[in-house]
Amino acid sequence: xxxxxxxxxxxxxxxxxxxxxxxxxxxxxxxxxxxxxxxxxxxxxxxxxxxxxxxxxxxxxxxxxxxxxxxxxxxxxxxxxxxxxxxxxxxxxxxxxxxxxxxxxxxxxxxxxxxxxxxxxxxxxxxxxxxxxxxxxxxxxxxxxxxxxxxxxxxxxxxxxxxxxxxxxxxxxxxxxxxxxxxxxxxxxxxxxxxxxxxxxxxxxxxxxxxxxxxxxxxxxxxxxxxxxxxxxxxxxxxxxxxxxxxxxxxxxxxxxxxxxxxxxxxxxxxxxxxxxxxxxxxxxxxxxxxxxxxxxxxxxxxxxxxxxxxxxxxxxxxxxxxxxxxxxxxxxxxxxxxxxxxxxxxxxxxxxxxxxxxxxxxxxxxxxxxxxxxxxxxxxxxxxxxxxxxxxxxxxxxxxxxxxxxxxxxxxxxxxxxxxxxxxxxxxxxxxxxxxxxxxxxxxxxxxxxxxxxxxxxxxxxxxxxxxxxxxxxxxxxxxxxxxxxxxxxxxxxxxxxxxxxxxxxxxxxxxxx
Length: 515
Known about the structure:
Blueprint: E1 19-21, H1 23-32, H2 45-59, H3 72-84, H4 95-112, H5 140-152, H6 162-167, H7 171-175, H8 181-197, H9 205-216, H10 223-240, H11 248-267, H12 275-299, H13 314-339, H14 344-367, H15 372-379, E2 400-402, H16 431-442, H17 456-465, H18 502-507, H19 511-514
Antiparallel strand pairs: 1-2
Helix pairs in contact: 1-2, 2-3, 2-4, 2-5, 3-8, 4-5, 4-11, 5-9, 5-11, 8-9, 9-11, 10-11, 10-13, 12-17, 13-14
């Protein structure tokens, strides 16, 4: 199947595909990854891979992480595996989002001095003389781990939230007892990608523990628990008059807390970007929420959204953004800056965005709501992904093939896979997939999202929504022999809706786990 479905199978080799990026665009990528005004929307899928490669490659220059370093070819394979593990049909929680989060973590670590200086025109330099900053307890090991976490923290995201799965009584929610459902799944699924493409990360207990803690911390349902821990940390620093007398146990515990807080900051850093970039992310996330709201309406279940989107209303959108920033983002970024002053740039940008949105609300209230604002922002998203995930803005004549293998390293390039990029789930050429699918369907395994019992008409709706269509790194596809659930009539749910089964989910893991 693929890395998660067949975790112990042979890995793809970098001789299977290449990535096309023009020399000019390559330099633009390098200069962009070290800037806080980084905009993931400006890059094609291939260029996003190159962004990720540049950031990991820079982290590998630290001698302290030599034990966990992988070759350029292996890194390329890993990044392609990560990209395949995300659903391109999901508007927000996709590979573009996690590269944005990855860049957020990368920039944080540069600013905090945990990563060495990056040779870029706008690269941040850590401020010297800040003896009170907790950044001193962070290590190169932590920086590398957070980079890995960032690119895998949303693996397999279906485009709906935890509350939706719990309300639906989805098997996935039941599997994790309704607690941090998606985050727990991301941990389990991402571990299979790592087991195959970066196995040493799964053999180091401290690294694996930090990965799990950090991914689980992205559950916004736990946000105030982490804020409470952060407040206690601030009080301890005040009482102890610094961290000079902390023992190793105290340092280790607070180091782990800082790592989880940094990944939380990066995960919602879209609201801390420059306003035009933040607004683009806002509209995309609103679209994802709107799809869930529509799905909930048609399934006749209560909404699981804290603030259901009001389509076409700039005022409603502005109020939701201001509310989120004041309640969640601003307190988090401010408290982080209190213990690590190098992070002041984040809260400054959040406050600026609050002011801009507030002005927009006032203007629309006085002059009438202006729904065209939303379309204006949408139109600014000039990137149009192609169906096969390849670069859609570069012709072959103006592109360069970057091929990193383990024998020869080209400065600045990246080697990639020849295997076809996910095109929406057509894996019909693999007879093993068809056989596995038939076997599991014959056993009547329930679908993982628990949607099979909703009946024909609602299943048609779900197919139309296409929010559960995801790549084979995490879920097999119905299209071409994937594993699907059963409809109310006991028959296959269809040929295009890739429902995930409990049987399939457990088949993702080694025998000793699934038994």
